[in-house]
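Example record for the data management plan.
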Amino acid sequence: MRYAILAAGAIAIVLVVSFMVFAHYVMEGHPVPTTSLDQVAEGMKPHQVERLYGKPTRITESADGSEDWLYSSPYRWCMVSVEFTPTGKVAHVIHDH
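Corresponding structural encoding:
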């Protein structure tokens, strides 16, 4: 009986620690390198953004020629959106947690 209680306690500790690690990964993880996060600025061209952030998860094109590049990762709360003008320059960068 004593060993069963110790085993149950050990399993509970492993589960709690696993949940805490997963929660940290979901809440704190970024879909782009954190060293590059603040380097994208208005007026940059798409190839400059791709060099810093990598390939976007999704690109949405609008009828006016503007684009929205979305960077996200599965099981992560954080996302980064880069909006380009119809002339192909960064208009806005949104970093949402």
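Summary line stored alongside the record: The chain is about 35% helix and 25% strand.
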